[in-house]
Design goal:
With about 210 residues, the chain is an alpha/beta fold. The chain is built from five helices and seven strands, in the order E-H-H-E-H-E-E-E-H-E-E-H. It has one domain: 3-Layer(aba) Sandwich (Undecaprenyl pyrophosphate synthetase), CATH 3.40.1180.
Length: about 210
């Protein structure tokens, strides 16, 4: 594994382009989601080997639930499968999202209260599932404290990597994304290759780490 001088403690992952990938392959849009499960597990292992301490995956949001029911069922199942794919692999796993909603997968409730620890806890993996950035912030405004936000157990991200070519955060952890460096991979998430993260890391080496100072 290649070594880098600067390694971010926390990397955010936006795995976009599943539906566009499926359409390009002549498949139904919902068939793209399941193709993103294995890349997520591979990427976690890569990041852990690089020395990253925390990674957060953008699973699905409250707004994504506006999509047709058959797509919603597919991306929800893909999120469940993604959590299961890394469970038991020396990682701490936390799921953050609106658990009061019927659209939150019941299979993942055990991961929501506190991080679930496996093995020697080499890295923390967070999944945002049925996440709502407005609700996340509203709790903080109500109590006038960042310690009250829904995502309070997630640390600030130094690097965010988004697949799928889009150049926007899409509501991804507005508090923790402050001063994050943002790298875009043009290929769709199901077309993930192990070299993608090395391209992002090579780019990150040249970023200015002053945090506004």
């Amino acid at each position: 594994m290649k070594k880098y001088t600067r390694v971010p403690n926390h990397v955010g992952i936006i795995p976009d382009g599943n539906r566009r990938w499926a359409v390009a392959q002549g498949l139904d849009k919902n068939q793209g989601y399941e193709q993103g499960v294995e890349p997520g597990a591979i990427l976690c292992d890569q990041l852990c080997e690089l020395g990253v301490k925390e990674v957060t995956f953008y699973g699905f949001t409250k707004d994504n639930n506006k999509r047709p029911a058959y797509q919603r069922q597919s991306f929800t199942q893909a999120c469940v499968d993604s959590v299961r794919a890394v469970s038991g692999k020396n990682y701490d796993i936390l799921v953050v999202g609106n658990t009061d909603s019927d659209l939150f997968p019941a299979e993942l409730l055990d991961y929501t209260r506190t991080p679930k620890t496996y093995g020697d806890s080499r890295m923390r993996i967070n999944f945002l599932i049925n996440y709502d950035w407005k609700a996340d912030l509203e709790a903080g405004f109500k109590n006038k404290s960042l310690e009250s936000i829904m995502s309070r157990e997630i640390s600030r991200m130094e690097l965010i990597v988004r697949w799928g070519g889009k150049r926007r955060l899409s509501g991804f952890l507005p508090v923790q994304s402050v001063y994050s460096d943002f790298y875009v991979v043009d290929k769709y998430w199901p077309a993930f290759a192990e070299g993608d993260i090395h391209e992002a890391m090579a780019w990150y080496q040249e970023c200015d780490p002053t945090l506004g100072g």
